[in-house]
Amino acid sequence: MRLEDITVVLRPRQPWEAVDLGCAMVRRDYGGIIALWACTVLPLWALVCVLLRSTPEWIPLAVWWLKPLYDRVPLFFLSRAAFGVRPTFLETWKQWPRLWISNCLPALFWRRLSFIRSFALPAQMLEGLRGSAVNQRIRTLAMDGGGSGFSLSYAFSKIELVAWLGLMWGTYGLLPEYAQPDWGGLFESLDFHNTIPSGFLWWGAACHMVIVSLVEPFYVGAGFALYLNCRTRIEGWDVELAFRRMATRLSSAAAAVIIAVLALGCMPSHAQAAEEADAPGAVEKVLKHPDFEIHKMPSRVWVPDLDPDEVEKEKEKEKEKERSRDTETDGTLGSLLSHFGFFGGFGFIFWVIIAGLVAWLIVYLVNNRHLFISRGVSNAPVRAPKVLMGMNITPESLPVDLVASARAAWAAGDFKEALSLLYRGSLSWLVNRRRVPISDSDTEEDCLLQVLQAGEKTEADYFRQLTGAWVQVAYAVMPVSNEEMGALCDQWPFVERKGGAA
Fold this sequence. Notes:
Elements: H1 15-28, H2 30-51, H3 59-65, H4 67-70, H5 72-82, H6 89-101, H7 104-108, H8 117-125, H9 132-171, H10 183-189, H11 192-195, H12 198-235, H13 237-266, H14 270-277, H15 279-287, H16 308-367, H17 370-373, E1 387-388, E2 391-392, H18 402-411, H19 415-432, H20 444-454, H21 457-474, H22 482-490
Antiparallel strand pairs: 1-2
Helix pairs in contact: 1-12, 2-6, 2-12, 3-12, 5-6, 5-12, 8-9, 8-12, 9-12, 18-19, 19-21, 20-21
């Protein structure tokens, strides 16, 4: 599932806002959820009633204890619908046995009394974790949203109890007389077994089942919304999604803007072209205007009669003054030219060099950013996970010629198995050979991020394409094309044992 496909607005919310969002998600698809509930839960309740027909007072307890099983099908539907893929009734029905069997014993025994059950359920069911990784993941999420999950469970338990008692009180008058307890004798003798008819107990169990059917889907939806809100807060999903959408918009808009600017700049209009062609004539026409006519006026200057010697002396003095002014001007101008020649010319060249170095440095950092965050192949001991997202990635579990096995599975029509082989083989090679620090609690998105940070561009580009195809087949149940599968097999970059051996 891709983060870009989510159908709800991601932003950090207050807990009560997240609960309201979850209830709104359930209301949106309440009909489909109730239909799935009826087909999966009611048969189990019928079995419980048959097994406990002689002791109907234990039926409400059994119904309450089995709640972790009921929640899984609604959560599966809501999680897919939240990312824009509403599974059909038949698709969800096919997933029902697997959903109930997965982590069944922990959910019904040592995790049954957890007060953050609906908040922790998405981490257990959607992230594919097992064993200690589940506990570690829940502890991490509970540091931010555990208090809200506890309050949610407390509030819904009260709502369910009050609604159950209210329904029994409101419908008590419809019971036949033989099914109504003798309240006076009950309080006098406190003999519950003999004073409370079995019909009353069956009616109470039926009311409890009705209330659980009405309330429990909203409890699941509210817990799922708290889980989404928690991951948005601690992992910055809203910021990541905003940057992805911004990058998509800018990449398409930038090309359009550049083309438009070049087109406008390189294609002068007809009027501009005509003006440029007739420019000399226009200048001549303007200069002929009377406003630009040069007027000359003769003038007379009186010159006194001087002695020739004095005239020569005056001329010599004027020449001396001119020479001294020229010398001063030449010295001042020379110093100015020297000043500006050094600081102006050299400064211009200096800043041009600096600007070029900055531009080169920016381009280098952008193109080689992986060098600064690369973890590379480490010789330090790394605890490689054996299971990721429920898939075994040990080298021993993979065929030697992995690509050939994937092609054979694809040819046989087992598309999911074919892509699973390629995906498991990639993870096995990256974890054991590349030493990429992938942990057993990482999701597909986390694994892709770790591979991108590892710094090998060929492997990262291939793994990005493979992850998209795997998520499409595994979660969206939409097969990829034969051409795309062929390209994934032909471009396989993990050559050592075809990705199987470390």
